[in-house]
Request: fold
Amino acid sequence: MVPRKQETINQWILPTNRRKNLANRILITLLLLLAFPFGCSNNKMNDNTQNTSVAEPSATDPLSIHQRAIAIDMHVDTAQRLLDEDVDLQQELSDGHFDAVRAKAGNLDAQFFSIWVEPQLFGGGGARAIKRADDQIATVRALAEKHPETWLLATSADDIRRAVREGKIAALLGLEGGYAIDERLENVQRYYDLGVRYMSPAWSVSTSWAGSSGDDVGRTRGLNEFGKSVVREMNRLGMMIDVSHVSDPTFWDIVNSSTAPVIATHSACRAIADVPRNLTDDMIHALAKTGGVVNVIFYPEHLEPGWQALKKKVDVEIDAMVREASASEPGSAVQKKIARDRVRQREYGRRLPPVNVSRIVDHIDHIVKLVGVDHVGMGSDFDGVQITTSDLATVAELPNLTRELLRRGYSESDVNKILGGNMLRVMEAHAR
Ligand SMILES: [Zn+2]
Reply:
């Protein structure tokens, strides 16, 4: 071809020094291309894909790797703080585990806000349960409406990627406990239309249609016919099914009937910490087979062997203190609960042994050894627990998780999957 011929001719006719200059220019151009590949200013967008480009030199220190990853936390209880305490998440709060300032500091990209209806306070169904869920959803939606410079209300993997491109935090919704659907199938679509993208059929109290790991009836209760129709409806809509909190029979009914990948938004491994809330190895295998993800919780009670028994002892010791705090709080039932939790928070910190991020990675490691690195993620349960791990105490310390993963030999590609890539895959599988 003509250009090739021309190049050959040029090589012969150019003086030696000009040929050297040309070679230098080519070398410089190549180096510039290596340093600035095709003007993609946001390195995060190149991550969470399998192929880490060899042409892209990147810092290999833990913080740089953490910053490049898309980090998705599947579960915080901060919506209740927004509603009950009217906290301003734009400020760095002096208490709790989560706000926009600390989320930015921890390089979090997407946060699922749990819409939790406590059945003891709001009913296991009915108008009050629905209102409680709707009010929390409204506070999260208002967050994005009032502060669009910080938050982007998201319902899909594409929305999360857009938030990353725009330097915002994606805010997403998940329903914890199916109480708010009030045993009516049409309400599943109602919540989907409000932006909810996952639901757990039960929290610590069983519903008529699904058993919980937190009560006696749940031990033998799986999904009834209505429960199975809820799973079908969620599959039809593209709403993820969350097995955190459900009982063992309910877990098995869900994985055996769902046609879409099943997730646990905030759970850990029973093989390490033997509590009913955690998943057995068989369950982890079955969940992975659906293509799903176990998002490991950061709560010591579900992480550390024997910690739950110690906590029960402490609960007895501090019982009078907790009651006193509740009795002397003049506010509503919700305010009394907040007062009780403040005492627990203080006393657990004083009386229980610290647990650190290394234990979280023990659970991640266990899941990876069982089913590979494609089926594990993270779900902190921040603001839903009275105590957190000592070196991942708030969202600001999220880079410590990446640091520990790298120290244990995980690659950047593995870290990308664990922090959020696996959940992006599952969300894409649900996209309609
Ligand atoms: Zn929970």
Summary: Residues 5 and 11 are 10 Å apart (CA to CA). The pocket of zinc ion is lined by residues 176, 244-245, 266, 384 (CB under 6 Å). The radius of gyration is 25 Å.
